[in-house]
Amino acid sequence: MSSNTFLGVPGKAFGGNWNAFVFSLSLPIAAWVAAKYFVPFYRRSGTMSAYENMEIRFGLWARSYAAVCYLLTQIARMGSIMFGVAIGLHALTGWDLATIIITTGILVTLYTLLGGIEAVIWTDAIQSIVLMIGAFLILGFLLFDHPEGPTAAIQFAADNGKFSLGSFSPDLTTSTFWVVMLYGLFINLNNFGIDQSFIQRYHTTQSESAAQRSLMFGALLYVPVSLVFFLIGSLLFSYYDAHPEMLAEVTAQVAAQTDKPVSELSAADIGDKVLPHFMTHALPPGASGLIIAAIFAAAMSSVDTSLNSSATVILCDFYKRYINPQADERSSMRVLRISTVLWGIIGTGAALAMIGAESVLDIWWKLSGLFAGGMLGLFLLGLICRKANNAAAVTGVVTGGLILLWVALSPESRLPEHLRSPFHANMAIVVGTLTIFLIGLLVSQFSRAGKSGDYEQH
What we know:
By secondary structure, the protein is mainly α. The chain contains 17 helices and no strands.
């Protein structure tokens, strides 16, 4: 969980429905696959870097390619998270967005420097508890502070379709149930299979079974916890309908920030701003303080993970591989600290660049799908297709990468309508992954057939 969860999820439910909750439902499925296949693979390989196995399988280019994709993903993640926490704290404190982002970046970078993976894991656990307490506090206020009571609040949200999971039609051009489910499965397989922050955790447990249990526990726990945040968004819709003066106030604020007329703003346009407004104007001061701690905890617990794992990737996959393979502990620690600071600066810059964007969750989903899509297909090709060779991997990555860019960027491109992708942008990781895997599989089959024919002819 992160500030993307705390602010982005209620914003999506307020502006639309529970379609994005389908992502949460995909987590246990992906975690089961990872516990059965990925955890044993990494525990038995003994490698700390998720990408060292890529080099063993396809060569140095594959390791560097996957590591770069991962680092880009973490820049996007840190940026969206710090931007999300800035939205919340701006509403609560009135501080400038840029000031909040820069301050957050400095603080999280400094305290990540003070501890390694153990500090990251323990602070993640404590901060997640604070976050959940804050969420349940908000939920209680929304239910019992509604003028007509909890039942009326829930009924009004239901009557307006706020609990819908989306269309179940087999349509891949819009955000249907199936599009979000496929996106969730593929992005979570990528997270559990080739995300350095997860791979590091697989190695911290005392046994393979402990790692598997931990993975499944986290995935199963996320479902009800994320449901609470979706429920918050739906109940906010009911609460603000019952308090039109508050709805008018937050709409006017968004109109002033975006230079759009109030009449042109929809519920989706103000979704991310409603929860911060509610915390500022409806919660008592003491509760607001706890929520500030919860939002900041959500950001800190996620950004420190990204900083720690990114520094590990820079050390293992670039410094030790290209510059100093025999680096001692002292020089390795120096590289880790410098990398943490550097990535803290870059992540903060990414957050500053996102100021003005509408939906935190949409930004993160689009960027993570774009960068992660190029990794998962290559990982699965190496894991499943034992006879896939270097030529097959290169061909798959080049072809899949182009298709990935086409699907992800088509909605915002200047391409003629008939040349644009027919798929929803969230399908980018699905189409890209399958293309890399299937093209690589096909090329490896032809390569084997050619070699077999040459041998028989000879």
